[in-house]
Specification:
The complex is a heterodimer of chains A (about 280) and B (about 425).
Chain A: H1 14-53, H2 56-70, H3 73-88, H4 92-122, H5 124-139, H6 142-153, H7 157-168, H8 170-181, H9 185-193, H10 198-227, H11 229-234, H12 241-249, H13 253-278
Chain B: E1 5-16, H1 23-28, H2 33-40, E2 43-54, E3 58-62, H3 69-76, E4 84-89, E5 92-93, H4 99-108, E6 110-113, H5 125-129, H6 131-135, H7 140-153, H8 169-182, E7 187-191, H9 199-215, E8 219-224, H10 227-233, E9 236-241, E10 244-249, H11 251-256, H12 261-267, H13 272-275, H14 278-281, E11 287-290, H15 297-307, E12 311-315, E13 321-326, H16 327-335, H17 342-345, E14 353-354, H18 359-368, E15 373-376, E16 382-386, H19 388-399, H20 401-404
Parallel strand pairs in B: 3-8, 3-9, 6-7, 7-8, 11-12, 14-15
Antiparallel strand pairs in B: 1-2, 1-4, 4-5, 9-10, 12-13, 15-16
Helix pairs in contact in B: 7-8, 15-16
């Protein structure tokens, strides 16, 4: 006899609640969610046009120049070789779509995440309220929220970018908050003692000093958004996730492998480039 | 009220913890800090502080760590919000002041120097020095000119474009001082400003502060745990113990009449040669001769012989010190014939010492000179002389303040 302590049948019908809620949201608020989609779509399409429109040779040249300026000639060499290899592997177009998705997602993560991180650093209550939300964003398996994302935003690359934003935003919020809170107390005191307002304090002291930590957050956000590429392909997004996904479906190990290798190579380039942003260039 | 009171502190309290007002009934019953902490979990930071600081004074607040001195000074610029009481600056109450008014005051009239320097590591020395002016919204050109001027005052103008981390500790604190001076405040709060520096640099910075103070009199509230420092720079000293002010007075007053065992305990390790200056111990026990008063070298020689003294100190009519003559030097001038003059009888090397010179500086002079050292004020007027005997007695007395109060030391014979 199934007793209470067997905990077999759910006594709290959470499953039904969630279904009802999502259905209700989709039925009543789909147009509002399309409104959220609109700016993401604009940016994403713009980025995609840009990355796909530029001639590969020019793109390789520009990224190599950036690597040389930011890091040094070794990194420039590595960047050029990597991009060239990706092209030779036949993954150029997928790579450009992925870069456009990552840049778009990261732009939104930064635009929303840095202000939220600053707010969290200024109010313990706001931080305490935000923390469980961030935990949920980072740990909820992506497959769980892919379905409601599709229901609300339909399938495609833009929906993929939105899922990526949800997953990749927490680190930049957390590290902005942490970086500002880690500014030595005496510097905060000194700026107060000289009559700095809260916004002067943030602009002139706390944010500049938190910059390396904020950049580390940006780096993490970029890496997480790259790791969402394959999952985004599940809901119809383009990019390097497509060959991986197709390869998996049709058991083409080679195709999946080439896609995976390209993701890893791009990740290495982006990681080193953005790490260089956070640490001042050593002469 | 002769001097204008710049800062007046009235019944000032700081109690840390939730609902601090709960502590007041217990304080009224005379419960101690420890009892209140045990009963309510509240920490008494500062308890019923009452004092006033006249304009232009260097007021030192002294105490061991945890005595509440840093809390007290942070209530002056409201880095810490007082629980109760008033801090009146030029008659205006800081505690009840609105935020905008407080910010205005901090930007123009009150600045702070920190123990840890608290320089902005991402700004140049010049930008750091200009920080207070920048928050006040002064245009770049103007604030950099004023910051350069402040850096010049502390001797760091050539380092304007350096980063703070490239400077030594002492230089960094000079930048901290320049940042405080740049806004040209009438009040300077210094929280253990020199405590992180090594002793030699610390003394140098104290001299620097005294020099700046002689050029432009500000009201300085200086926190210190170092009695030597407090004695050296303080016009008056307040001694704090577990949140209460136990004694306020000039260094001499506190040295000679410590209020309780706690204050006395401070003085055990004090080096009296730092505390006292030449002017404090000079005595008028030597024979003096006023020039142009009819008493010529012959008369003075006779007086020395009669009183059995080896030296006479020659002054002019305004009591300005001229030199020392001895029985032998007088005799030889008289023997040379003609009209004898004091100037020919002066002993070579008998230079006077300044009244402000610390006793420490006198030791080599005392051992070198056979005569008691003449002491003069800043106008060169003779204040007295210090013999080896007087010097030793001063050391002994400063070491044992509790045993010698009220006893007059016997006058020494050179």
């Amino acid at each position: 006899m199934a007793g209470f302590w067997d905990f077999e049948d759910p006594l709290i019908p959470m499953e039904d609640w969630i279904e009802t809620t999502v259905d209700w949201l989709v039925a009543n608020y789909r147009s509002e969610f399309q409104l959220i989609k609109w700016p993401v779509q604009k940016v994403m399409w713009g980025m995609e046009a840009l990355f796909k429109g530029v001639h590969p040779a020019v793109m390789i040249g520009l990224l190599t120049l950036a690597a040389w300026k930011l890091v040094g000639w070794r990194m420039a060499l590595f960047t050029a070789a990597t991009l060239f290899l990706v092209g030779l592997l036949g993954m150029w177009e997928h790579t450009m779509v992925t870069l456009a998705m990552v840049v778009s997602a990261v732009a939104f993560c930064a635009a929303v995440g840095i202000p939220l991180g600053i707010l969290a650093s200024q109010s313990d209550r706001f931080e305490a309220g935000l923390r469980p939300l961030l935990d949920a964003m980072q740990t909820t398996p992506a497959f769980v929220y892919l379905v409601p994302v599709v229901m609300l935003f339909s399938i495609g690359t833009v929906a993929g970018v939105i899922a990526t934003i949800i997953f990749a935003m927490p680190p930049i919020i957390r590290l902005t908050n942490l970086g500002i809170r880690q500014v030595p107390q005496e510097l905060v005191e000194a700026s107060r003692a000289f009559g700095a307002t809260r916004s002067q304090r943030l602009r002139r002291v706390q944010i500049p000093l938190a910059m390396p930590t904020i950049m580390a957050g940006l780096n993490q956000t970029i890496m997480l958004s790259l790791s969402m590429v394959v999952i985004a392909a599940l809901i119809g997004a383009g990019g390097l996730g497509v060959p991986v996904f197709e390869g998996l479906n049709s058991l083409q190990v080679g195709l999946a492998g080439v896609g995976g290798l390209s993701i890893v190579l791009i990740a290495m380039v982006l990681d080193r480039l953005t790490q260089a942003l956070g640490t001042p260039k050593a002469k | 009220m002769a001097d204008k009171e710049k800062i007046v502190v009235k019944n000032l309290y700081k109690i840390f913890g939730h609902h601090p007002a709960r502590a007041f009934p217990l304080l009224k019953k005379g419960k101690t800090k420890e009892e209140i902490h045990a009963e309510l979990g509240l920490t008494i930071g500062v308890q019923d502080a009452n004092f006033s600081i006249p304009e232009g004074e260097i007021f030192v607040i002294m105490g061991l760590s945890g005595s509440g001195k840093s809390t007290l000074v942070r209530m002056f610029n409201r880095l810490i919000q007082p629980t109760r009481g008033q801090v009146l600056v030029d008659g205006r109450d800081i505690v009840s002041m609105g935020k905008a008014e407080l910010i205005k005051l901090l930007r123009s009239d009150m600045s702070m120097v920190f123990q840890s320097f608290a320089l902005m590591p991402h700004m140049t020395v010049l930008q750091n020095a200009a920080f207070g002016l920048e928050t006040a919204g002064m245009p770049k050109k103007e604030r950099e000119l004023r910051a350069l001027d402040a850096l010049e005052q502390v001797g760091l103008k050539p380092y304007a474009d350096s980063m703070p981390r490239e400077l030594s500790g002492g230089m960094q604190q000079r930048v901290g001082l320049a940042r405080g001076l740049a806004v040209d405040p009438s009040i300077l709060l210094m929280d253990e400003a020199f405590s992180a520096l090594d002793p030699l640099i610390r003394t140098e910075m104290q001299d620097e502060l005294l020099r700046l103070q002689s050029e432009h009199q500000r009201t300085v509230v200086f926190i210190s745990h170092d009695l030597d420092e407090a004695m050296r720079i303080g016009d008056r000293i307040a001694i704090m113990e577990s949140g209460r002010i136990v004694q306020i007075g000039t260094p001499d007053e506190i040295l000679q009449d410590p209020a309780d065992e706690y204050v006395k305990a401070f003085f055990r390790g004090v080096d009296p040669t730092n505390v006292l200056s030449a002017g404090d111990i000079a005595r008028k026990t030597q024979v003096t001769a006023i020039r142009h008063k009819g008493e010529g070298p012959r008369a003075v020689l006779e007086r020395l012989n009669r009183e059995d003294r080896p030296y006479a100190y020659v002054l002019d009519q305004k009591k300005v010190y001229q030199g020392i003559v001895s029985v032998d030097s007088l005799k030889s001038v008289i023997k040379d014939g003609g009209e004898p003059r004091f100037a020919d009888a002066f002993l070579p090397g008998a230079d006077p010492v300044d009244a402000a010179a610390p006793l420490q500086d006198l030791i080599p002079l005392l051992t070198a000179a056979p005569w008691p050292l003449p002491v003069v004020d800043e106008a060169g007027r003779y204040l007295g002389a210090i013999s080896k005997n007087i010097f030793l007695k001063a050391l002994y007395r400063a070491d044992m303040p509790e045993e010698t109060t009220g006893e007059n030391p016997p006058e020494a014979n050179g």
